[in-house]
Amino acid sequence: MSSQRIKRAVVLAGGLGRRLQPYTTVLPKPLMPIGDRPVLDIVIRQLRHHGFTHITIATGYLAELIEAYFSNGNELGLDIDYFRERTPLGTVGALPLLDGLDQDFLVMNGDVLTDIDYGALLARHRASGATITVAVKRREVQISLGVLRFANAEHADRITGYDEKPSVSYDASMGIYCVSPAAVRYIEPGVRLDFPELVQRLIDHDEDVRGWQSEDYWLDIGRHDDYEQAIEEFERMRHRLIPEA
């Protein structure tokens, strides 16, 4: 395989998973089981299916369990290595410390359950010339309250509208990003930085930041409700979430 076709992914798996306690007292969140396998196992197999050959897993909390589970990736036909954070560096602070990020690459959270085509996402990013591409999902939130609208400051107590239990739509990051080497130059090595801060920094410097609007299945299992939903939906979605090798 030529170097121009190598697909590299960095999977973020070092968080404490506080919102999923007490489960994450003994397991890192990416090893939480969905059906008969950890969510990170599903992610790694999907990346392999979409042509990724080199995966770096950024670990921290309970890192040894993740490293023991996946080892060097030989059993999956992958090259898997690790970057263990000694101090928390946020979601992008570790990137300048990784070797070989000289081509566009994928970065994603290790607790995302989706059937997105990671390979197509990276290909579209490369073709666009963008500095960063963010996978985006439209979400609708039902507000279970009556929401009031008021006039301007001159008549601050005058009600101009009353919406009973309105819905609000927004575009949410799916925790999946394509990143060019140029973006890494905006990150100070070893200094904590999260993706929202990096994206804003790039925008402030007039870099090309784009969004991929996804219609794919997507669930972030960071909360108890989402984790329970993932367990309930897994068997129905299994054929889409775990592609054939």
Tell me what the structure shows.
This protein is α/β, with parallel strands linked by helices and 245 residues long. The protein has one domain: Spore Coat Polysaccharide Biosynthesis Protein SpsA, Chain A. It is built from six helices and 13 strands. It has helices spanning 39-49, 63-70, 118-128, 181-184, 195-204, 224-241; strands at 8-13, 33-34, 37-38, 54-59, 79-84, 105-109, 112-114, 132-142, 146-150, 159-164, 167-179, 209-214, 218-220. It has a seven-stranded mixed beta sheet with strand order 5-4-1-6-11-8-12. It has a two-stranded antiparallel sheet with strand order 2-3. Strand 2 (33-34) and strand 3 form a beta hairpin. The chain is globular, with a radius of gyration of 20 Å. It starts with 7 loop residues before the first strand and ends with a helix.
Itemize the secondary structure elements and their pairings.
Layout: E1 8-13, E2 33-34, E3 37-38, H1 39-49, E4 54-59, H2 63-70, E5 79-84, E6 105-109, E7 112-114, H3 118-128, E8 132-142, E9 146-150, E10 159-164, E11 167-179, H4 181-184, H5 195-204, E12 209-214, E13 218-220, H6 224-241
Parallel strand pairs: 1-4, 1-6, 4-5, 8-12
Antiparallel strand pairs: 2-3, 6-11, 7-13, 8-11, 9-10
